[in-house]
Amino acid sequence: MTAEQSLAFLVIGAMMVFFIWGRFRYDVIACSALMLAVAVGIVPYDHAFDGFSDDIVIIVGSALIVSAGVARSGIVDAAIQRFLPNISSVRAQLALLVITVTVLSAFIKNIGALAIMLPVAFQFARRSNVQPSVFLMPMAFGSLIGGLMTQVGTSPNIVVSRVRQELTGESFTMFDFTPVGATLALVGCIFLLFAYKLVPQRSSSQVSVHSAIEITDYTSEAVVAAGSPAIGKALSNLVKLGDGGAVVIAIFRRGLHLAPLPDVTLEAEDILIFEGGPGALDRIVSQGKLKIAGDRAPHGREKAGDEIEAIEAVVGSGSPLEGMSAQRLALFNTHNINLLAVSRQGERLKQRLGSIRLRAGDIIVLQGARRELTLFLQEFGCLPLAQREILLGTTRKAPLPLLVLAAAMGSTAVGLVPVPIAFFAAALAMVVFRIIPLRDFYRSVDGPILVMLAALIPVSDSLRTTGGTDVIAAWLGTVAAGLPPAGALTIILLAAMAVTPFLNNAATVLVMAPIAASFAGALGYKPEAFLMAVAIGAGCDFLTPIGHQCNTLVMGPGGYKFSDYPRLGLPLSVVIVIVSIPTLMLVWPLR
After folding, report:
1. For residues 31-51, average pLDDT
2. Is residue 315 part of a domain?
3. How many domains, the chain?
4. In the prediction, which pLDDT does 371 show?
5. Is 193 among the domain residues?
6. Are residues 258 and 231 in the same domain?
7. pLDDT higher than 50, residue 256
8. Which residue range(s) make up the domain with 323?
9. Are strands 382-384 and 256-258 parallel, antiparallel or unpaired?
10. How does the protein's chain sit in the membrane according to the entry (predicted)?
11. What is the model's pLDDT at position 85?
């Protein structure tokens, strides 16, 4: 072993130790490892930042934006309420998520399948009052397993088919992978449904500040518009859309004040006074097709930076708003701003929203152009809360995000454009079509995750450039030479699993497949089972968040630590190995 190879193993080994220790944030560790690798000479200066232009970074960042656009559209919430209104068990929800992602991943890119279902996972987590981390890691692992079932399901299958073509003159076909892949998918899904409790419930770092200021007693007003699906139905059906996060505290009908009983039949132009959190209020208003607070659209969109948004603010002591109501102030006509909701600690507000006399300490939700909101807050002595996404009162373009995502996945499925181009274009379309406001575009991208990936790519590649992978291959040949057939096949599978976190999975196949084929030939075996073992090992990185972009995609939203992945991933890897070896030997005989 050369000095460079020793240094590559030492740098990567030290980096893994710090990742598992968890004392420092993962992006800091990755960047430190990159600088150390440059300092000792195993990563050239002119290649130190190649990772920032790598396709994986583009794919993960774009997928996060596309997923945020799908979630923001409200179409996921509507679909769940319509088709799965009563699914409340955590295990039943997990079964639906994991099985759906697994099956979809057999036919479309697994990161696309995962992006489709991420918003559903967050909705289920909110409904069941659990952290999204319960669902996200099993979903990511399910997407990896699902890709094993077909030739197009994952990159390793495509690459290993090409290697077999070069070695034997015959490629694997579309469904040659299905007997083994479907068996692993079935066993893997069953395992995930019973072992999901190994995943720790962690809060995403992206929402921890928002949770600290969560307000659940806003009073808001909405009108049952003509054409609303709520007309002619009981009030309880409408309230169910909020998943228990909001209640109706008053109904006004043609000047009369009605008691908000659950069996009251709603009519057009009924005025409903709600109390609840902004998320629940938004779901009821958007899915029930209600008109919020007079439904007056602020103008001023023609100026750059004047996108319409909603913010939360506290009425300060001595504010001119004290004792004033929105009607008396002529808030919209004078300031081009809508009052969407009011929260007052320790008091339930049952009157019409526009007639509420504001007090110091009231928390209000205001909607308008950013410039006008800023001027209003300064003029009237209001203090904005920590900024978080408020969707109440925003316009939705429900089918458009799914069309954008479908176009991206369809174009990659037929080979029209590469995956990074398709997903980058889809992310851009989310802004161009105003599915995601420009101000929220970069919030959807998890910066620390992308920096970690970009820094790790050249560090991991140093194992190949210094010849470290050749050392591993030689060691494999020595160890496996005296083993029985099942043992030799196991060594190849384990080696592919071990290498893939440090190379991308396609590169792992390119490195390991020729080794596996020549190794099989030296032992007098057919190469197919060994090539399949390489593809399975390269497609099943369950131990780290860096070996596959699906694992990386859920790291930030799930709030996971590096050491969380082996908790579920290690026993799943053992299950995959135990099931794979006899299945491979049965489907692809060695002699």
Report:
1. 91
2. yes
3. 3
4. 80
5. no
6. yes
7. yes
8. 308-384
9. unpaired
10. Multi-pass membrane protein
11. 62
Q: pTM for the complete prediction?
A: 0.64
Boundary (domain end) residue, out of 384, 411, 430: 384
Residue 236 has pLDDT above 50, yes or no: yes
For residue 384, CA distances in Å to 205, 361, 373 come to 21, 12, 10
Neighbours of 416 (CB within 10 A): 11
The proportion of the chain whose per-residue pLDDT surpasses 70, expressed as a percent, equals 85
Two structure tokens written together for 332: 């919209």
Q: What would the pLDDT profile of 63-120 be if each residue is shown by its tens digit?
A: 778 777 776 766 656 666 666 666 778 899 999 999 988 988 887 677 777 877 887 8
Closest to 513 measured CA to CA, from 177, 166, 183:
166
Side-chain half-sphere CA neighbours of 124 within 13 A: 25
Residue type, 128: S
Residue with tokens 């205001």: 366
pLDDT digits (tens, 9 = 90+) for 430-469: 888 877 777 667 777 767 778 877 887 788 778 778 887 6
CB atoms within 10 A of CB 39: 10
The answer to whether 185 and 145 have CB atoms below 8 angstroms apart is yes
- What residues form DSSP beta bridges with 247? 275
Return d(Cα 283, Cα 168) in angstroms, integer: 57
Buried b (16+ CB within 10 A) or exposed e, 91-116: eebbbbbbbbbbebbbebbbbbbbbb
C-alpha distances in angstroms, 279 versus 243, 244, 282?
10, 11, 5
Indicate whether 506 and 578 sit together in one domain.
Answer: yes
Which one of 258, 292, 326 terminates a domain?
292
Question: Residue 435 has which token pair?
Answer: 């599915």
Same domain as 330, residue 264: no
